[in-house]
Amino acid sequence: MKLNRIKDILEQKGISQTWLAKQVGNSTINSYACNRYQPDLETLLAISKILQVDLKDLITDEKERQ
Questions:
Q1: What is the pLDDT of residues 26-46, one digit of tens each?
Q2: How far apart are CA 37 and CA 13, in angstroms?
Q3: What average pLDDT does the segment 16-21 reach?
Q4: What is the pTM of this model?
Q5: Which of 22, 18, 62 is nearest to 46 (CA)?
Q6: Is the per-residue pLDDT at 2 higher than 90?
Q7: In the predicted model, is pLDDT for residue 62 greater than 70?
């Protein structure tokens, strides 16, 4: 079960996990993207702003919300 869609969004935007980790200042992006660990709400919000996506898009697929 996927608990976040960070990896999917990165792939869609053609952005590397390394780049995102530098932007967030957090080296655990790979663990978040692989769903080994889950980011706290503050980190999710920062990621959503950096990736310019709605916070709920990092958590669920649009199809799942309908």
A1: 889 999 999 999 999 999 999
A2: 22
A3: 96
A4: 0.85
A5: 22
A6: no
A7: no
Q: What is the enclosing helix (H) or strand (E) of 17? A: helix 17-24
pLDDT of residue 66: 62
Q: Write the DSSP string, 42-64.
A: HHHHHHHHHHT--HHHHHS-GGG
Q: How far, CA to CA in Å, does 14 sit from each of 8, 40, 63, 66? A: 10, 24, 22, 26
Tokens of 62: 């649009």
Nearest Cα to 10, choosing from 53, 39, 43, 55?
Answer: 53
Q: Which residues contact 44 (CB under 8 A, 6 or more apart)?
A: 4, 55, 58, 59
- What whole-number distance in Å separates Cα of residue 63 and Cα of residue 37? 24
